[in-house]
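Quick one from the shared queue. A colleague (R.T.) flagged LPXTG cell wall anchor domain-containing protein as missing a structural entry in our internal table.

Convert sequence to structure tokens.
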Amino acid sequence: MFGFIIFLLVLWLVLAIIGFTIKGLFWLAIIAVVLFLATAMGAWLRRRAGVAGKTTRR
């Protein structure tokens, strides 16, 4: 699962770079940045919940 999240983050980063470099695809950059942030935040929350869940279980 971690590998898939890394793949998505790299994909969003590449799309953002393409969107910023090609003037007509600025909308692509905005969508890619939003998706990058959402994926990163989702991964961070999932990892944080996993760590918290592991420390309370016996």
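The mean pLDDT is 83.
The chain has one domain: 8-49.
Added to the table.
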